[in-house]
Design brief:
The protein is α+β, with helices and mostly antiparallel strands. Helix content is 16%, strand content 28%. It starts with 17 loop residues before the first helix and ends with a strand.
């Protein structure tokens, strides 16, 4: 829906805080099983966003860093399906981000040694790179768009 019915918004609507002034009130009305058609016109033509897909070439899967979160964790476009089966079993990984090695796949941050980059499966289903008690982005000196590779053997 294109939410245009302003009487559902918190007024006055701030120019910078739509989460509080528009989205939260509309969500609250929706929880009351309100008739969604009263919020505005249905959107039938919308833009779809597709993530870049990892590519297999020369014995490595080539991906990239999609984003850096507030803690300095690096979210990649790699999923468990892009990792060798052995990696998922034993936790040993041959991952490189900006020519720096990450050699351990862990389940939690605490399993990583302080200051040592590790890979883990993030809540969004993508492989992330983190540093226990630190920032992977700062320690590795990387950001969004940086290449990430995983050896397949």
């Amino acid at each position: 829906r294109h939410v245009t019915a302003q009487h559902y918004f918190l007024n006055p609507v701030s120019k910078t805080f739509h989460g509080r002034d528009v989205f939260a009130p509309v969500a609250a009305w929706l929880t009351k099983a309100w008739q969604s058609q009263s919020f505005g016109d249905e959107i039938s033509e919308y833009a779809r966003f597709s993530l870049p897909k990892p590519k297999l070439a020369d014995g490595v899967v080539k991906g990239l860093v999609l984003r850096v979160d507030a803690f300095g964790n690096l979210m990649t476009n790699l999923t468990p399906a892009d990792l060798p089966e052995q990696t998922l079993k034993n936790g040993a990984i041959k991952l490189q981000v900006a020519n720096k090695d990450v050699t351990r796949l862990v389940e939690t941050f605490a399993q990583g040694e302080a200051g040592v980059p590790v890979a883990f499966l993030g809540s969004s289903g993508f492989i992330e790179i983190a540093v226990n008690k630190g920032s992977a982005a700062k320690q590795l000196g990387v950001g969004r768009g940086v290449p990430v590779t995983v050896a397949t053997s």
